Amino acid sequence: EKGCLDMLITDFDREIDKMSNNPGVHIFEKLISGMYMGRLAAEVLAALINQGIILKIQRDHKQSYRYYAPFHALYMLQTSHISEIELDTGRTFANTRNVLKKLGLDYATNADCAIISYTCRLISRLEITINS
């Protein structure tokens, strides 16, 4: 809370803090807690949508990404979803597709699934490394 972690905090972390029930408080816990892992993944994936990297099939580019349905669906990601995605093996991305379908995103391409799966694995690995 006194700024000693400022060099570690990303824009994604700042957004999570801002949207939390207690902005500006318990910053360290928000950086490492599994409770925030789904939201962190959602923030990163939303940025990838905004950059036109994933889930771009149905997007009208004249429309702001904030009004794009997949952007909002991703905010329903939970830590349990990240764990399910991590169990994927091979190139079918069955678990990733299952999670996306639960969120109402059933049209993801293989490339979308690969990026989403990789992103979730990185975030989970980071959380585990920090907590160890």
From TrEMBL:
One of its GO terms (molecular function) is glucokinase activity. It catalyses: a D-hexose + ATP = a D-hexose 6-phosphate + ADP + H(+). This is Phosphotransferase. One of its GO terms (biological process) is glycolytic process. Keywords: ATP-binding, Glycolysis, Kinase, Nucleotide-binding, Transferase. PROSITE patterns: HEXOKINASE_2. Residues 3-125 form the Hexokinase C-terminal domain. The keyword ATP-binding applies.
